[in-house]
Amino acid sequence: DAGVIQSPRHEVTEMGQEVTLRCKPISGHNSLFWYRQTMMRGLELLIYFNNNVPIDDSGMPEDRFSAKMPNASFSTLKIQPSEPRDSAVYFCATAKVQVGSGANVLTFGAGSRLTVL
Amino acid sequence: EDQVTQSPEALRLQEGESSSLNCSYTVSGLRGLFWYRQDPGKGPEFLFTLYSAGEEKEKERLKATLTKKESFLHITAPKPEDSATYLCAVQEPTGANSKLTFGKGITLSVRP
User: Fold this and answer.
1) Residues on chain B touching A9 (C-beta within 8 angstroms)
2) Is the pLDDT of residue A99 over 80?
3) What is the pLDDT of residues A6-44, one digit of tens each?
4) Which site among A37, A40, A50 would you substitute to test the B interface, given the most B Cβ atoms closer than 10 Å to its Cβ?
């Protein structure tokens, strides 16, 4: 199993440019989470999906951020336009969740480090 | 108010010097409390899940315990390879697929 695969690993862009981060979940995992990590705020949940449906996007900072999950094998997080304050490490995490089961164990990808100049 | 607070922010130990990392939480109800380890440049890696007060779990030099308001990660005779950031997270029982809320982490450095 290749685990959760994220791309790109590093992205440097200029303010105002569009940024697209990608995630391939572990096969069979039906929940997908996008987190952002900074020194100041730690790991913050941006949005999560169950069975490809967005469930909670209350953590998305503003309309410049959007996320999609067109199928069970792929998700994107898009920032348009990007700003310097968006600089952070963005993690995708996935879990196999069954209704009525216990707590979710998330498996994280290696992250995408975004720098907006 | 933060739902999950970890302390101290950073901890430096000598190899073999045992210590404990604290995670306190204020959520009402708990589906699970998680400990993760994060190495520089990598994503968090799962260590333990605790479900109820009094529960304990062990893995090598690590032991996690849980009370109604906090969890401890005890590190016995640590080695330099235990150096990492340790993250605590809670999951509330608000639905079948509820989210994890993380603390800011504790950065542990173990000197040889």
Assistant:
1) none
2) no
3) 999 999 999 999 999 999 999 999 999 999 999 999 999
4) A37
Q: How far apart are CA A7 and CA B82, in angstroms?
A: 28
Distance from CA of A110 to the nearest CA of B (A): 5
Contact residues, chain B to chain A, C-beta under 8 Å = 31-32, 34, 36, 41-46, 49, 51, 87, 89, 91, 96-105
Q: pLDDT by residue (tens digit) across B27-69?
A: 777 888 999 999 999 999 999 999 889 999 999 999 999 998 9
* A50 phi, psi to nearest 5 deg: -120, 125
Closest CA to A115 of A41, A33, A9: A9
Q: How far is A9 from chain B (nearest CA, A)?
A: 10
What torsion do the CA atoms of A65, B104, A99, A102 make, to the nearest 10 degrees? 170
pLDDT at residue A84 greater than cutoff 90: yes
Rounded CA separation A95/A107 (Å): 6
Contact status of A91 with chain B (Cβ, < 8 Å): yes
